Amino acid sequence: MLEIGRTIISLDILEKKFLCDLLKCKGACCVEGDSGAPVTPEEVKAIQEAYPEVEPYLSENHRNEISKQGFAVIDLDGDLVTPLENNKQCVYTYKENDILKCGIEKAFLDGKITFRKPVSCHLFPIRITEYKRFDAVNYQQIDICKPGRECGKVAKLPLYVFLKEPLIRKYGEEWYEQLQYAAENMPGRK
C-alpha cells in the first residue's frame, strides 16, 4: 500500500498493466455489477442539468426509465447510483457499432455539456471507497476486463498511466505527480 495525502493506494494501481479494449469487452462495465455506477449528489445535479443535451443519445426505453426512477437511485447497499434498465444496463448508455457507450460522455465529447461523466465511471476499473479519514483507492480486477489487461500488457501501459486524466480529475495534479514519482521509484523497478 502507498499513502498520499488522505488516500491509501493499492500497489496494483502502480504495477498492473491496463488499456481498455472496447472492441472485445463491448462496454460490459456499463452492464455488469450489482447496481448502477456510484455517483455523488453533485454529479446527480450535473447530470440533471445536462440531461436535455444527453437525452437525444438515449433510447426511448432508457428515457422512460429515467422518467420513472429519476436521475439516480439508492441501491441495496444504501449507495447513490445511476439507474438501471431491467436491473442490468445503465440508463445513460447507448449502442454504437454493437458497443455500449455513455450518452453523457458523448454529449461532452460533442461539446454540448461540460460534465464528462461520473468520476466512478471515468476511473473504472479503479474503485474508491471513501472513509472518514481516508480514501481507499483499489484496482477492481474482474473477468469482463480481461481484454483490457491483455491489451495493457502488450502496450506495457500501467493502470495509473491509463487513468491519468480521471485520477487528476479526482485528486489533482500534485497528487498524481506524487503517485507517478512513487511508481517510478518503487524498489525493484528499472
Task: Explain what you see.
- The chain has 190 residues and is α+β, with helices and mostly antiparallel strands.
- It folds into two domains: 84 residues, no CATH class; 97 residues, no CATH class.
- It has ten helices and ten strands.
- The strands form four sheets. Strands 1-2-10-9 form a four-stranded mixed β-sheet, covered by helices on one side. A two-stranded antiparallel sheet has the order 3-4.
- Helix 3 packs across helix 5 and helix 9 packs across helix 10.
- The longest helix has 14 residues.
Brief summary of the model shown:
The protein has 190 residues and is an alpha+beta fold.
Helix percentage range:
40-55%
Number of domains: 2
Q: Poorly predicted ranges (pLDDT <50, ≥5 residues)?
A: none
Mean pLDDT: 92
User: Which band does the percent of strand residues land in?
Assistant: 15-25%
Silhouette = globular
Count of separate DSSP helical elements: 10
Distance between the termini: 20 Å
> Structural class of the secondary structure composition?
alpha+beta
| Rg estimate, integer Å | 17 Å
Q: Main sheet?
A: 4 strands, mixed
**Number of distinct beta strands:** 10
Order of helices and strands: EEHHHHEEEEEEHHEEHHHH
Strand order in the largest sheet: 1-2-10-9
Pfam families: DUF3109 (PF11307)
InterPro entries: Rv0495c
Organism: Aquipluma nitroreducens
Protein name: DUF3109 family protein
